[in-house]
Amino acid sequence: MKPTSSFKRGVAQVRREWRAGRYDRALAEVNRLLEGWPDNPQLLVLWADLVQLQETAEGPTLEEARAAYERAAELDEQSPAALNGLGHFLMAVEDDPEGASKCFDRAIALSRRLLREALMDQAKALAELERKPEALACLAQAYWLQAQNGKTPSGPEHAEILERLKDLATAE
After folding, report:
1. Longest C-alpha distance within the chain, in Å?
2. Number of H helices, E strands in the chain
3. pLDDT digit string (tens) for 85-120?
4. What radius of gyration, in Å, describes the C-alpha atoms of the chain?
């Protein structure tokens, strides 16, 4: 197994090259990283993003970029990053706003769910720190997000939030 620090250094190098506009170098570094981590969703998304920025007709194709986004989304169904990248690809490259909208809808739903979970956990931590107003604010945001996901107010997710709100409100 390769050390995580090597992966992190490699991704940091990719981002430095990208910011400097050296897309060919960034892509070469992603290709190097993919040798060690061939099915890493983060690397697949970076690779697909960089393929689209190449100015030469040589090298990977746009079809391969799309396939990389799709593979990343398949490998990490809980992450919105690949879906967001695929949505942008469908808009910019394939002029497919309907397909892009579907990708963005899925990415938004995943993002809301992840944010709701983080807000619930943050509320718990803040309650432990006796920072009740901030904890209540997190729970209120989580409740609002749950409603935005089309969940009914009588569903189990809302009940969990309401129970935590009640516990926090009655806590000394």
Report:
1. 67
2. 8, 0
3. 999 999 999 999 999 999 999 999 999 989 999 999
4. 21
